[in-house]
Structures are given as C-alpha cells and as structure tokens.
Amino acid sequence: MWDDVHAGKSGGVLEEDPVGKLKVYVYEMPRKYNLNLLAKDSRCLHHMFAAEIFMHQFLLSSAVRTLDPEEADWFYTPAYTTCDLTPQGFPLPFRAPRIMRSAVHYVATTWPYWNRTGGADHFFLAPHDFGACFHYQEERAIERGVLPVLRRATLVQTFGQRNHPCLQDGSITIPPYANPHKMEAHLISPATPRSIFVYFRGLFYDMGNDPEGGYYARGARAAVWENFKDNPLFDISTEHPATYYEDMQRAIFCLCPLGWAPWSPRLVEAVVFGCIPVIIADDIVLPFADAIPWEQISVFVAEEDVPRLDSILASIPLDDVIRKQRLLASPAMKQAVLFHQPARPGDAFHQILNGLARKLPHRKDVFLEPGDSGVDWNQGLESDLKPW
C-alpha cells in the first residue's frame, strides 16, 4: 500500500494491481452516445480529451469488467461528450451537458441501478477544461457548476483546482491524453546534454478570446513573456517547431503554466521527456496526486512570483535538480501519466481503477431511501435542459 515510506523517500509511483479489488459494469448505450459521434469526427481520438474514448475501449476488455450488474462495485456510462466538435476541433460546450444529461436519463430509465443510489456508485469520464462544468471559459463553467445529475457520482476528470465549484469531493483527477506512440517516435538518446535551461512553446496571449490580454492564464503567461522574452536562459516562443519533443529532451525545466484551465498536456510531455515541470497554477490538484510524488519531481511557482522565475530556478541546488531528473527517469513515473493502447500495468487506466478501488466499500448512506429519487431532473440551466 501507499504509505509515508513510498511517498516521501523513494519517490515511487503507486503500482498496485487493481484486478480483484473492484468490478465494473459497463452500460451498453445506444451508438448515438459514443460510436456514432466518433464515426462522425475521428479527430476526437487525437485531442487532449480522448481519455473518455480510450477508457471505454479499455474497460470492455479489462479483467475488472463484470457482465453481472448485481455484483458490480461501479457502473460506467460510455458517453463521448467531447466528441461533438466545432470545425476547429474543439468540443461544443452547449452540446456536452445535453449529451451527458440524456445519457444519464437513459441509464436511469433503462436499468434499476442508478435509482438505488442516485448515481453514487457510478463514475463518469469528464475530461473537459473544467470537468463536469462542461465549458472552456471559467466564468461560464462556474455559472453552470457541476452538471446537477452528476453531483452524487464520482467524476474522473482532467480538471482539478482546490476550493473550486467545478471540483467536487471524491473526484479523481487524471492527466490529459497525449499520444504515447507519437512521443515514443521522437525519443532521443538519454545521454543527450540538456543544454536548454527553460523551455516553453505556446500562447502568451489569447487575443481571439481575451483581446485585452489580462484574463487569459490570469496574466501568468503574459508575465512570462514580458519578463523573459529577451532572457538568454529562456527558450520561449509561440512557434511550435517540428523539433518540439526533441527540444523538451534537451531542456532542464519545462514551463507548465495555466491557460484557460490550470492543466495542459505539457505536464504529461514534460514527465515523459524527463524535463522538470515548472507548475505555474495556484491551487492546482494534480493527476493521481496520491500515487505520483509531484512535489519531488516538479517545481511549483506561485502565479504572483512569475517575474522572479529566473532567480527561483537558478537558485535550485544542483543536487535537487539531479534528484528530480533521476525520479523522472523512472519508467513507472512515465507509465502512470499515459493512456497506452493496449494498456500496460501501472498506466493511467490502472491508476484510475486504483483510485476507484480505494473508494470502496461504498458507505451505507449512498443507498437511497424508498421514494427518494436522488436527482431533480428539472435542475440546471435552461439551455442544458433542452433535449439532445
């Protein structure tokens, strides 16, 4: 089991085998909730929200799957809410909650299991920018809050920020999807010198959505650019070169600042390529925080301290840098943040299952009294209540 020895001294990743510790029943849903959406636009297999698709595929052949719902510990509803895309390839925020609400209603009216607990023994993948608040803009996400029909369920989501309306107690925070095969194809010799001190590629301003430049990333990315664009220790740019993955393997520190949401695939890429993540996102809840020793492999910089980023990083003792790099070199560390196909022991799929297993047995109070529905189907934003 995970204990202080493992967490504090070895820097190891939780490598429990979840098989035998839980049973999951996978609902068979009409194709309109998943496979038809995927057939309509296959881009959702490749974007950073794709964990909801691959989790479904994994569970169908997993040893934890049970075909007998009466013996299930958990129930899983495969609805691909991030697979209904704009022409630019982004999930439609007004469609996602309608898809999920419709899927939950179908489950509740087709099987008896939802109604026993109001969904408290069900889990849902919600890899949206702000999880089950289903919107990429924080103000709009907070306005909706966690979709009301999901408030008794366990949410498995990319978003995590302490004391935030879009993170409910008991949620399991997961890494975003980053293609393991694509990254593997760009591996270079581990003996390659790390000649770049600080590396970052991405937006500093989102002029399309935040023309005044102060709201995006709460100003943290703008502060990086304004303070360090001419600093020779900082290799930062909006350009995304073909050598992006190779460059990360030549860097000591990789910046992982918040954007519209606190998280991005850069965190996964940094771990995989052994580049020390510099996490700039106040109050972030990191993926599998009970299994991955983030404090030991990362550097945390408060958003207000970004102007001192150069002195903060330069003052880290060399021994600490080497220690973090050695921990990042662990195959188990990289495995835990990746959704492999096919799955591998200890990878992100298994970390999710371990998280669900640690929530067992269910408390007796998850079961509803006769006559208590547990869900108010009329609760929520008027736009979300429209049929899908």
UniProtKB/TrEMBL annotation:
Membrane topology, as annotated, equals: Single-pass type II membrane protein
Q: Which UniProt keywords apply?
A: Glycosyltransferase, Golgi apparatus, Signal-anchor, Transferase, Transmembrane
List GO BP terms, alphabetically.
glucuronoxylan biosynthetic process; plant-type secondary cell wall biogenesis
Q: Please state every residue range assigned to the domain named Exostosin GT47.
A: 21-316
Q: Where does the signal sequence lie?
A: none
Please provide one cellular component term from the Gene Ontology annotations of this protein.
Answer: Golgi membrane
Task: Please provide an example of a Pfam family that matches this protein in its UniProt record.
Answer: Exostosin_GT47
| GO MF | glycosyltransferase activity
> Where in the cell is the protein located?
Golgi apparatus membrane
Question: What highest taxon heads this organism's lineage?
Answer: Eukaryota
Identify its protein family. Belongs to the glycosyltransferase 47 family.
Q: What is this protein called?
A: Exostosin GT47 domain-containing protein
Can you name the source organism?
Oryza brachyantha
